[in-house]
Amino acid sequence: MQVILLERVAKLGQMGETVKVRDGFARNYLLPLGKALRANDANKKRFESERATLEARNLERKSEAQSVAEKLDGKSFIVVRSAGETGQLYGSVAARDIVDVLAAEGFNIGRNQVDLNNPIKTIGLHDVVLHLHSEVEIKVQMNVARSADEAERQLKGESLTSADAIYGVDEDALKPEDFFNPEAEFDGEDE
């Protein structure tokens, strides 16, 4: 299906271009969201008459996205989740969770604007790309930890995936004498 793009669409084209896309992509995504019009003579004339307003609206959206990007630039957000000693989460952090964390901080970001190929399944510092506008994207840092205290330690560069880091115990320094008393006598029955 041939469509006229009403705004820049990533990996497809710029505003005003006539591009050929699959029918389902046009019917289910581009047309309902108002990102494109079917390419026919009536719509071409309509687009040309509304081009100035569309460009102004696109410029306004882009400037809003840039102002949000400036506020988000260099920020790190803490996500507290339960995890095992190896740092494996008992669940995951998905795009929905990232949107919730950003909303709690006062940022209105949609789930479709979060570029997360796979959910986050380990503790640590993870970079997440946000597509605020088709021409504006920003990278924010998600600090996934078991507690706020651990999140602060992770920011300082500590690794929290060993027992020493979690409990403050050096496993190599433990000796058998710490657990076993050689002078102890057995008072029970022998089998």
Write up this protein.
The protein is built from five helices and nine strands, in the order E-E-H-E-H-E-E-H-E-E-E-E-H-H. It is α+β, with helices and mostly antiparallel strands and 191 residues long. It folds into two domains: 2-64, 3-Layer(aba) Sandwich (Ribosomal Protein L9, domain 1), CATH 3.40.5; 73-169, Roll (Ribosomal Protein L9, domain 2). The strands form three sheets. Strands 4-9-8-6 form a four-stranded mixed β-sheet, with helices on both faces. The protein starts with a strand and ends in a 24-residue tail after the last helix.
Q: Specify the structural class.
A: alpha+beta
Order of helices and strands: EEHEHEEHEEEEHH
Largest sheet, spatial ordering of strands: 4-9-8-6
Please tally the β strands and state the result. Answer: 9
β-sheet strand percentage? 15-25%
- Please estimate the helix content: 25-40%
Give Rg in angstroms: 27 Å
Contiguous helical run count: 5
Brief digest:
The protein has 191 residues and is α+β, with helices and mostly antiparallel strands. The chain has helices at 23-30, 41-72, 95-104, 148-155, 163-167, and strands at 2-5, 18-20, 36-38, 76-80, 88-93, 114-115, 120-122, 124-133, 136-145.
